[in-house]
Design a protein that fits this description.
This protein is an alpha+beta fold and about 725 residues long. It is about 35% helix and about 15% strand. Belongs to the FHY3/FAR1 family.
Length: about 725
């Protein structure tokens, strides 16, 4: 919840005005008990809703001309310089805040001086928020609350940056820039998507949005402003002559539901008009952003049978985080829900990311082959390392055909959920069963430990003849954690359940929802994921994690990893300190037994090749998650390794995970064509403008030719 009030809210206390003999700065009395306020609370999926609002003030309000408002064209390209003048110090502050937002850093007021005559400001100094340094004792959490005091765990942000902007008051109410340092000692948040998160001194400076050049906001597009990223544009198939939106009437939707009821759960009918409406909408999205991909199938009556789509952000995310993918088809068997499937993954903040969605009116093997093939086409024909799906013979067969080199796994959370349904009487009678069963299938570190615990559970609860458990045991190699260590899966913790759209989907989408409303609400939900990712990206640029111990390994990891991944790494490191090590083999390749207690089932073997300085562990955590395990971290100091080599730091977990992304040639071509169309429209408005445009175009063409020659490209 956040509540914003007028600065004249409340009253000054007597302490503020009392003369008790102490020297106090004279402050103007500004509070008058104004009740104006606005209160917002966070609702589902990150949405904020106004819950309280009082519009009326009990005092005169400033005219709009006095409200601090920065138009983008006013300071669009203006750089600060020594001698720059402003009519007031507020104008200077507003300018520097706007400059900071454009360049990509945060600002705080470092120093102010007042006149001894009338207490008015005569100097203001603004600095980067990374100015100075965080005291060591604030940057180190000893866990003991030194001195008996509880200290808030603050994330350090200061790095000794020298950037600053100082203005002093001159005669005739002029403020002049007297000191200026433009260089920063750190990376700047230059991406526009990050800049709007900068909050200088907890003040809100309104930056006006330009009215030109953008696309109109439409109901179902939270992403229209994204630049093209990768892959080919979508493929059409139905003639797009009708560019209108048609929302199905209640009768049409009821007919659609009745048809599905009669045909069975797997049958879902989408009418011709609704089909055309949805495809017109997708076509318009692609016109606005060539990287938007969609593909569809229609039957002999031009009714939609399958449609897949992925926006530019989804395709870019796959380029960075597409090594491990989950295909969620859990709602296909529910006849009261729309037959929707999604492709998702995990980003470098352990947040879920979307790689595309599809509507399938049939759950046959051919349908899944079609959606897998088109999804793969949208992702530049680059298959994932691992694919997690729900347990289904037809999905498994389709995955084997389209992704022959991908490690196919079954969603263990789906298995656990269905186990609870099939063994509901056991769960209700025995309070300890769930913990025992989940520990067995999720936390067993060796195959022997799993088999022992599994058999123990079967005997203890009389489940030897249970058909469900016999069935899931038969394909245990596809879902039990200890058997799925042969390929990367981005699974940081075997017991950590990934974020899902399921709750949102169950709440808002059913067969009575029109497809356009469905798509728009889905995109709005996904946009919350994008927003959360952008927030984390920005936070990682402006904060540093708190080290629990001053280890060189931790300091190095803190520089590379995102805050979320560093926390995981640090937990592994701290846990490693409680393990003991025994060398079991000497030589060029040494082996170490690493265990926390005497239980042989929890003992892991770390192999270290001194010539290559490479370590591996029998737990295979690094191979599965890309994070070094506690066993290797325990051995590294023993063999004299105090720094992580590059091979142990996966880029997908680092702050720079999204750096180095390259546009596909087709998208680059479409992007330039789109800009060229705008250029031609503006450049042909008059003969004078045409001549200028033509001359500029010829100069630009010459520069392009020269650039191609310089890098060895042929014409």
């Amino acid at each position: 919840m956040r509540r914003f009030v007028c600065s004249k809210e409340g009253f000054h206390t007597k302490k503020d005005s009392a003369d008790d003999g102490k020297k106090r700065r004279k402050r103007a009395t500004i509070r008058e008990g104004c009740q104006a306020m606005i209160e917002v609370i966070q609702k589902y999926y990150g949405r904020w809703v106004v819950t309280k609002f009082v519009k009326e003030h009990n005092h005169a309000v400033l005219p709009p001309s006095r409200v601090r408002y920065v138009a983008p064209e006013e300071y669009a390209d203006l750089e600060p310089f020594i001698g720059m003048e402003f009519p007031t110090h507020e104008d200077a502050q507003t300018f520097y805040y706007a400059y900071a937002s454009r360049v990509g850093f945060d600002v705080r007021i470092r120093l102010s001086r007042r006149s001894t005559r009338d207490e008015s400001f005569v100097m203001r100094r603004f600095v980067c928020t990374k100015e100075g340094f965080t005291p060591y004792e604030e940057n180190f959490d000893d866990g003991g609350g030194g001195g008996g005091k509880r200290r808030r765990n603050r994330t350090p942000t200061r790095e000794g940056c020298k950037a600053m902007f100082e203005v002093i008051k001159k005669d005739y109410e002029r403020w002049i820039v007297s000191k200026l340092v433009l260089e920063h000692t750190h990376e700047l948040a230059v991406a526009p998507s990050r800049v709007h998160y900068i909050q200088s001194q907890s003040e809100v400076v309104v930056l006006a949005k330009s009215g030109g050049g953008g696309t109109p906001r439409e109901t179902a597009s939270a992403l229209n402003s994204l630049a093209p990223q990768i892959g080919e544009p979508g493929r059409g198939g139905l003639d797009h002559h009708h560019h209108h939106h048609h929302h199905p009437t209640g009768g049409e939707q009821d007919a659609r539901n009745d048809t599905r009821e009669a045909a069975g759960q797997s049958s879902f009918v989408i009418g011709v008009e609704e089909t055309q409406s949805l495809l017109d909408y997708f076509k318009r999205l692609q016109d606005e952003n060539p990287a938007f991909f969609y593909a569809f199938q229609v039957d002999k009556n031009d009714c939609l049978t399958s449609v897949f789509w992925a926006d530019a952000k989804a395709r870019m995310s796959y380029y960075c985080f597409g090594d491990a993918v989950t295909f969620d088809s859990s709602f296909l068997g529910n006849k009261s829900m729309l037959p929707f499937v999604t492709f998702t993954g995990v980003n470098h903040h352990l947040q879920s990311v979307i790689f595309g969605g599809a509507l399938l009116t049939c759950d046959s093997e051919a349908s899944f082959v079609w959606v897998f093939e088109n999804w793969l086409l949208a992702m530049c024909s680059r298959p994932p390392v691992s694919l997690v799906t729900d347990h289904s013979e037809v999905i498994g067969a389709a995955a084997a055909k389209v992704f022959p080199s991908t490690r196919h796994r079954i969603n263990k959370w789906s298995i656990l959920s269905r186990t609870r349904e099939n063994l509901s009487n056991i769960y209700s009678k025995h309070a300890t069963f769930q913990a025992e069963f989940e520990s067995c299938v999720l936390a067993s570190e060796t195959v022997e430990a799993f088999e022992s615990d599994w058999n123990s559970i079967l005997d203890r609860y009389g489940l030897r003849e249970n058909l469900w458990l016999q069935s899931v045991y038969g394909f245990r190699h596809q879902w039990v954690s200890v058997y799925t260590k042969d390929a990367f899966s981005a699974e940081i913790s075997a017991t950590r359940r990934p974020e899902s759209l399921s709750r949102f989907y169950e709440k808002y989408f059913n067969t009575k929802t029109s497809l356009l409303v469905f798509v728009s609400l889905f995109e709005q939900a996904v946009s919350c994921w994008y927003e959360n990712e952008a927030l984390e990206d920005f936070a990682n640029m402006y904060t540093k994690p708190v080290l629990k111990t001053p280890s060189l390994l931790l300091k190095q990891a803190a520089e590379f990893y995102t805050r979320t991944i560093f926390d995981v790494f640090q937990d592994e490191f701290i846990e490693s300190l409680g393990y003991h090590v025994d060398r079991v083999e000497d030589g060029e390749v040494c082996k170490y037994s690493v265990a926390k207690d005497e239980d042989a089932r929890t003992t892991c073997v770390v192999t270290y090749a001194s010539s290559e300085k490479k370590a591996s562990c029998s737990c295979c955590k690094f191979e599965v998650s890309g994070i070094l395990c506690r066993h290797i971290l325990r051995v590294l100091p023993i063999v004299g390794v105090c720094a992580l080599s590059e091979e142990y730091i996966l880029k997908r977990w680092t702050k720079n995970a999204k750096n180095g992304f390259v546009l596909d040639e087709c998208v680059r071509y479409n992007d330039i064509c789109r800009d060229a169309t705008k250029y031609a429209k503006e450049g042909s408005s008059s003969m004078e403008v045409y001549k200028v445009a033509k001359e500029a175009l010829q100069m630009a063409f010459g520069e392009v030719v020269a650039a191609k020659k310089s890098i060895g490209c042929t014409m």
